[in-house]
Design brief:
The chain is of the alpha+beta class. The chain has 6 helices and 6 strands. It has one domain: Jelly Rolls (Sandwich), CATH 2.60.120.
Length: 177
């Protein structure tokens, strides 16, 4: 098991989209609440319905997002790789997980516990507020994309188009939880 240095963590996160507006000093404040977790192949990072107690960034490895379907096996709706952030909706609304995230191969994730993140917000930590702003931008972009895809599907009279488009919308926009 290789040790990850603080310098490696900060350099890595500075290149992750969610952390793009933070400088190294702000990032070091956030890193203090971060936990490093190593997950074996096929192990869940979290399961659909679990409490939303943290959000994550993949450092090494990969993961798949699976959504349960009534009377059918769970369906893979997204694949995630290094620098992908997921679980951020839990920070904002305290809802249970809306999907399961499963490790593919040996995977290392950075885990940011909700309670610790909320404590940073309560202290008025600027870096934490910048991250919430980034989360909001990601969620807005997803909402705009979903709205456009549904509008396109509703205006298209081709049989079965609405069903296939709605499946694609769910697959493409449920990767956070």
């Amino acid at each position: 098991m290789t040790t990850i240095t603080l310098e490696q963590i900060i350099n890595f996160l500075l290149e992750a989209p969610m952390f793009g507006d933070l400088d190294a000093a702000e990032l070091s404040q956030i890193v203090h609440i971060m936990q490093v977790q190593r997950i074996r192949d096929g192990q869940p990072i979290f399961r659909e319905g679990d409490p939303g107690d943290a959000w994550y960034v993949i450092f090494q490895g990969a993961a798949e997002v699976h959504k349960s379907q009534e009377f059918l096996p769970a369906r893979r709706i997204a694949s995630l790789g290094p620098r992908a952030c997921f679980g951020e909706m839990a920070i904002l609304d305290h809802s249970p997980r809306s999907a399961s995230v499963i490790s593919r191969g040996e995977t290392t994730v950075f885990r940011f516990p909700r309670k610790d993140f909320e404590a940073l917000l309560a202290e008025g930590n600027l870096a934490a507020y910048k991250l919430v702003y980034e989360m909001a931008k990601v969620l807005c972009a997803r909402a705009r994309s979903i709205t456009q895809q549904l509008t396109d599907a509703l205006s298209d009279n081709a049989p079965g188009r609405l069903h296939s488009t709605s499946v694609n919308v769910v697959q493409g926009h449920s990767i956070s939880e």
